Automatic annotation (TrEMBL):
Gene3D superfamilies: 3.40.50.970, TPP-binding domain (3.40.50.1220). GO terms for molecular function: catalytic activity; magnesium ion binding; thiamine pyrophosphate binding. Belongs to the TPP enzyme family. It holds the Pfam family TPP_enzyme_C. Residues 151-297 form the Thiamine pyrophosphate enzyme TPP-binding domain. SUPFAM superfamilies: DHS-like NAD/FAD-binding domain, Thiamin diphosphate-binding fold (THDP-binding). Residues 2-89 form the Thiamine pyrophosphate enzyme central domain. This is Pyruvate dehydrogenase. The lineage of its organism: Bacteria, Bacillati, Actinomycetota, Actinomycetes, Mycobacteriales. It comes from Mycolicibacterium agri.
Length: 348
C-alpha cells in the first residue's frame, strides 16, 4: 500500500501492491487498509482521516517527531529514518502463512485496476475526449526514463491512476503544498537538470494559463519540454469540490484560447486534439519533435475523479448540487454530468 509520493518507488516491483489510497487513490487500496488489523506507516504524513482503519493497531515511523500521531491516534510512534527502523525491525519479524486478507486484497486490486483501465480508451470516437484516455496514451508513448510533472487538480488524479512507474521514471508535483500552475515550472527545472531525458508536463488549462508566458522560457533556454494540456474549460477539481459541498458551479468557467495556436505563434510545436482518433498521433509527433511542444487536448469537463470512499455529507452535497443546478435553470449541465459518467458506461 502506498500514498502518492511512494508511487514511483515501491509500486512497480511490489508483488503485494494493492493500489493507492486517499483522495487520489481507488477502491482496492481503501478496502485493504479498512480491513486491516495493523497499519504500519512508514515516513508518511498521510492527512485523510476518513481513510484510516477504524479498529487496527497503528504504528508510525517518521524522522519528523511532530508528525507522530498528528493525523490519527497511534498505538506506537517511532522516531527515526525508515531505512534504519526497518533494518532493526526485520530480524524481529516472523513470517506468517495466513494469506486470506492479502489474497482478498490482491484480487480486489486486479478487479479495480481492470475497471480503471477500461476507462482509458478511445470511447468509440465520442467527444469530448476522456481524460483517462489522455493519461493512458501519454503513459504508453512516453520514454522509459521520462520525468513527469503534474499540475495540482484533476491532472494529478489521472497521473496517479494511469502513469506506470518502473524505477527509472520520475513523478514530480506540488504534493505537499497543492500549488496551482506547478507543472510547467517544475518541468523547466527538471529539463534544465536533465537535458537528455524526456520531460513531460501534464498541465491543467487553469494552471497553464497562470504561467503561460513560461513557454518563452522553453524557447529562450532551448528546453524540449512536452506540455500535455487537459483542456476542459474549467477549474475542474474546484468544481468537483463545489459539487461535493452542494454548491452550484460559479466562477470556474475558463474561456480558453486555442493553446496550440498560441504556442505556434510563439515558435513552439503546437497541436490541438478534439477527436480521440487523433490523440495518439498528436502525442507521438510532439514527443518526436526536437524542441518544446504543446498538445492541447479538449477533454470531458464533467468526468468525475471520484475518490475510493464517499462520505454521507458528500453524497448529500451532490444531491443538493443537483437540485440547486436544476432550480438555477442549468439542467443541461446536470445532463452532461449524467451522460459523461453514467449513460455512456451503461450503454457500453
Amino acid at each position: 500500500m502506498h500514498a502518492l509520493r511512494g508511487k514511483e518507488f515501491i509500486e512497480y516491483d511490489n508483488p503485494f501492491d494493492v493500489g493507492m489510497t486517499g483522495l487520489l487513490g481507488f477502491a482496492s487500496g481503501y478496502k485493504a487498509i479498512k480491513e486491516s488489523d495493523a497499519l504500519l506507516m512508514l515516513g508518511t504524513d498521510f492527512p485523510y482521516q476518513q481513510f484510516y482503519p477504524d479498529n487496527a493497531k497503528i504504528v508510525q515511523v517518521d524522522i519528523r517527531g511532530r508528525n507522530l500521531g498528528r493525523r490519527a491516534p497511534i498505538d506506537l510512534g517511532l522516531l527515526g529514518t525508515v531505512g534504519d527502523t526497518l533494518a532493526a525491525l526485520q530480524p524481529l519479524l516472523h513470517q506468517k502463512t495466513q494469506r486470506e486478507h492479502l489474497d482478498r486484497s490482491l484480487n480486489h486490486y486486479r478487479k479495480t485496476r481492470k475497471r480503471l483501465d477500461e476507462l482509458a480508451v478511445n470511447d468509440r470516437d465520442r467527444t469530448p475526449i476522456r481524460p483517462e484516455y489522455v493519461a493512458g496514451s501519454v503513459n504508453r508513448l512516453a520514454a522509459d526514463d521520462a520525468v513527469f510533472t503534474v499540475d495540482v487538480g484533476s491532472p494529478v488524479v489521472w497521473a496517479a491512476r494511469y502513469l506506470s512507474m518502473n524505477g527509472r521514471r520520475r513523478l514530480i508535483g506540488s504534493f505537499n503544498h497543492g500549488t496551482m500552475a506547478n507543472a510547467l515550472p517544475h518541468a523547466i527545472g527538471a529539463q534544465t537538470a536533465f537535458r537528455d531525458r524526456q520531460v513531460i508536463a501534464l498541465a491543467g488549462d487553469g494552471g497553464l494559463t497562470m504561467l503561460f508566458g513560461e513557454l518563452v522560457t522553453l524557447i529562450q533556454n532551448r528546453l524540449p519540454v512536452k506540455v500535455i494540456v487537459f483542456n476542459n474549460s474549467s477549474l475542474n477539481f474546484v468544481e468537483l469540490e463545489m459539487k461535493a459541498a452542494g454548491i452550484v458551479n460559479f466562477g470556474t468557467d475558463l474561456h480558453n484560447p486555442d493553446f496550440a495556436a498560441v504556442a505556434q505563434a510563439m515558435g513552439v510545436f503546437g497541436r490541438r486534439v478534439e477527436h480521440p482518433a487523433d490523440l495518439e498521433r498528436a502525442v507521438a509527433d510532439a514527443f518526436a519533435y526536437d524542441g518544446p511542444a504543446v498538445v492541447d487536448v479538449v477533454t470531458a469537463r464533467q468526468e468525475l475523479s471520484i475518490p475510493p470512499a464517499i462520505t454521507v455529507e458528500q453524497a448529500k452535497g451532490f444531491s443538493l448540487y443537483a437540485i440547486r443546478t436544476i432550480l438555477a435553470g442549468r439542467a443541461d449541465e446536470l445532463l452532461d454530468l449524467v451522460t459523461t459518467n453514467v449513460a455512456r458506461r451503461i450503454l457500453d
